[in-house]
Design goal:
The protein is an all-alpha fold and 574 residues long. It has two domains: 1-98, no CATH class; 129-537, Up-down Bundle (Growth Hormone, Chain: A). The protein has 26 helices and two strands. It has helices spanning 2-10, 17-21, 30-35, 92-97, 117-127, 132-137, 140-143, 148-176, 178-195, 202-216, 219-228, 236-261, 272-294, 315-328, 343-350, 356-364, 370-382, 387-393, 395-415, 419-422, 424-438, 445-456, 462-473, 476-497, 510-546, 550-559, and strands at 13-14, 79-80. Helix 9 runs antiparallel to helix 13 (272-294) and helix 17 runs antiparallel to helix 22. The longest helix is centred in the C-terminal third of the chain and has 37 residues, at 510-546. The protein is globular and about 75 Å long. The model is unreliable at 4-11, 20-92 and 129-139 (pLDDT under 50). Keywords: Membrane, Transmembrane, Transmembrane helix, Transport. It comes from Recurvomyces mirabilis. This is Phthalate transporter.
Amino acid sequence: MRDAREKCRSKQIIRPFADILAIGHPLFSQKHLDEAPESENLLATEMSDKTSSSGIELPQNGSKIFHGKAAAQPKLFGLGTREGRTTFKTESLEEYYKPINSYEGAHRYDPQFEWTPAEEKRLVRKLDRGNISQALSDDMLGDLKITTNDYNTGQTIFYLTFLFAELPSQLISKKIGPDNWIPIQMVSWSLVASFQAFMSGRSSFWACRALLGMIEGGFIPDNILYLSYWYKGGELPRRLSFFWTSYQATSIVSAFMAFGILHMRGINGLAGWRWLFALEGTLTGLIGIVSWFYIPPSPTQTASWFRGRDGWFNEREEKIMVNRVLRDDPSKGDMHNRQALDFQGFWLCLKDWHMWPIYLLGFTWLLPSIPMNQYITLVLRGAGYGTFETNLLTIPAYVLFIVNLLVICWISEKINERFLLSAVSQLWVLPLLVALECLPADRSPWATWILSILVYAQPYAHAILVAITSRNAGTVRTRTVASALYNMSVQTSNIIGVNIYRQEDKPLYRTGNKVLLALVAYNIVLFVFAKIFYVTINQRREKIWGAMTRDERAYYLSTTTDKGNKRLDFRFAH
């Protein structure tokens, strides 16, 4: 039975762009497709033989345009068969969505190009920062004669410099390409991370944190921008979940490495945490050097002496890569990967109020788990566990974090839900914070351990929110700035978060936990507000768009000066 289904799928094709473009923009939402009146549904209806008032000739009578099952992201070019295929007799609208000539994949753009879903699946399969915590468990604070509040100040300095480096880093990345800028960042911060081994007190600790923040700032948005060159909008959440999974997997490896490296305390008169910074920083530097040669600029620029003279893909695969991404979001062809933003474009991105609810969420949604993320080793040390036990006991937290991250992203894709599902992260941490606040001071160390790892493992909706930021931006320009602004809001929450647990409130941090409980309630309300906000905008646009004739829609598309998410036919993901 399964073989029969696969055989059936292999006969399907991804439709030519002209077939599925019709008179609609490729960023329709599932709701927009499903609720459009049958007579106006441009993706699954017979259309009469007529010419629009704007002079654009429409498909002939009797021809049909099919779309496949609606999913988390619009699939306007969907799955269809060759029978009943329709194409434009004029290239007017195809030209409107055509990428600029300097776009790096322009030579592979072909609106008539077809491929099978099986080919695309094979191709996608082909594609497919954090030792300060372990150092704390080795009494780094004691060796440097600094307090918890000094450590808080150091983390605040780190996040402030990280915050202010976000936008400049994104602008540099857009100018020279993330394939160049990301390795430069990695090698640079590895040098600073290694030199942390020579810290001698509070001032040097703060200086190192400032330099690290300045260099690491923008790393995540740079990666998001880079991944958007390769993947469709609906594929980003899962790929971003893999990104943070690898980060947590690194934390697990770091915990094991720390267990061994911290035993080097005393060798050459150095503390174990100094060896930890030196060795792990060196390893990061080596990875950065390899990345410089390994990361290609784009799907059509993979050939090099290091990656192979023939590159990673043949001509057909490159055409699939380019056309599938552009048919999902034609705005990705509006700029090439070495094109900087001008001031006007930058200012327009900053003023885009449609993105503000996501930025507001970035300020607070992660706050309830930040103190535990930063202090888990200190909390476990305070519960009576030793240096090496503490490092090993953090591993289950990392593993559970990975599981929750992958599960919530998978569910989001399956049920096509983002904001309400992301609110689960707050419902998860709510009873845990209540328990931390209410349990007696003489509770078992094991109770503290269980609650600590569960708070740390809060379902991480960051990948979902990062992807929806990219999706709702609407253009490459806005996406570049919006990714940085969202991450800046998250880093601002880190600045707040590392100052919630205070020296005078230890070891139970009762006051801090009350603050976190209030934030949980606020976040739940904010997630619901964001959902209603975008649904309302979509409904208003749908009402106007649904009342327009095909001729009026065609005229709007050919004459409008609206860009990206300002367009009447753009639908926000929610």
